[in-house]
Design brief:
By secondary structure, the chain is mainly alpha-helical. 78% of the residues lie in helices and 0% in strands. The longest helix is centred in the first third of the chain and has 49 residues.
Length: 135
């Protein structure tokens, strides 16, 4: 194999890796927005249900759901998918433990997923630029 063939082969491999890494970020980004929106909806449900008691209480004294009792269930499963996308992105980027902890926290602290998505975008661009310079 000549030097130019080796360089082309390595360039193609690096490009393919970058595409997979960007795909992992895109999946994370989508799940960050979905998880953040569902968490905000869950917070609205909790405030309306327990603080405002919009629908009152049932015969047992329990607060009745306002938007629906399905919201917590759906948010829980969406959070599981979010956590998988966070792990995928984190492992592909080879970041430290602190970053995965911050990204995971984004799914349970209202509005943080939107903030962390922007932060993660910067981290991804920085990591990919560093990889390109080292090649």
């Amino acid at each position: 194999m000549t030097d130019s063939e080796a360089t082309t082969s390595e360039g193609t491999t690096a490009d393919a890796q970058e595409m997979r890494d960007r795909g992992a970020f895109t999946r994370y980004r989508i799940m960050a927005f979905v998880t953040g929106a569902m968490l905000l909806l869950l917070c609205v449900e909790m405030v309306l249900k327990y603080i405002v008691e919009v629908n009152g209480v049932d015969a047992n004294g329990d607060s009745r759901p306002v938007i629906g009792s399905w919201i917590a269930f759906v948010h829980g499963w969406i959070y599981v998918v979010y956590a998988v996308t966070v792990f995928d992105l984190w492992s592909r980027m080879r970041w430290g433990f602190g970053r995965i902890a911050l990204l995971i926290a984004g799914g349970v602290i209202p509005v943080l997923s939107f903030v962390m998505e922007q932060k993660a975008h910067g981290w991804v661009e920085e990591t990919l630029a560093t990889r390109q310079r080292s090649e």
